[in-house]
UniProtKB/TrEMBL annotation:
Keyword hit for Nucleotide-binding: yes
Cited InterPro entries: AAA+_ATPase, ABC_AA/LPS_Transport, ABC_transporter-like_ATP-bd, ABC_transporter-like_CS, BCA_ABC_TP_C, P-loop_NTPase
Transcription regulation recorded as keyword: no
The protein, known as: Branched-chain amino acid ABC transporter ATPase
CDD domains the UniProt entry points to: ABC_Mj1267_LivG_branched
UniProt domain ABC transporter: residue ranges: 2-250
Keywords: ATP-binding, Nucleotide-binding, Transport
GO cellular component: plasma membrane
Amino acid sequence: MITVTDLHKHFGGFHAVDGASLTIEPGTITGLIGPNGAGKTTLFNVIAGLLKPTSGKVTMDGEDITGLPPHALFDKGLLRTFQIAHEFHSMTVRENLMMVPADQSGETLWNAWFHRGRIASEERALREKADEVLEFLTIAHLADEKAGNLSGGQKKLLELGRTMMVDAKIVFLDEVGAGVNRTLLNTIGDAIIRLNKERGYTFVVIEHDMDFIGRLCDPVICMAEGKVLAEGTLDEIKANEQVIEAYLGTGLKNKEMQA
């Protein structure tokens, strides 16, 4: 589905991504791990159009998408979430979801004046879809809560819900477990697995919690110093000498990759 070929992203003399190449197969939940500064988030940002690469190529289903802006990739079904959730804090949870689909009739003044019936019909359909998403994510009881009042884990569920409001094909999740308690992390994991198996979503997950990676992800890709270091099952990655050496500075070897 996604192929990255010899990708580079330089910030002056710093090579955040330094010749990374990898393939994300459709229907997989791929884990992306590596020490801090490995280039994982920068790689996400380049693929998702937030940063333009210095060189290299990204294709999606055989189409060159290198450097396309996020809204163009959104239309193609490529979505990205962030380590820190980006909710509209003064709007309700349901309203946050209803805002996601593009090209709504109510966005133009002409339709607001002359096509109110069409707008009302669209809003009813969006409300029904939003409520279905909230039910799927087991947070229907929060539909009318202001999004800014949610816990960190609930905000991550809301971000996942946004991907369900459109026809997502592949979703890049950046540290979905950051600041999330274990119970909610399990709920998020359950939702990701269901979306993958029941709706065919492809996921790529940056995460430091190896229990979470082990539960969800196969294959797992390890990056270090802007390059892809190894790929395989989590057990294969944990036994790889290059991976162990790359992680030594963060104590991964001694903590059995639990950091």
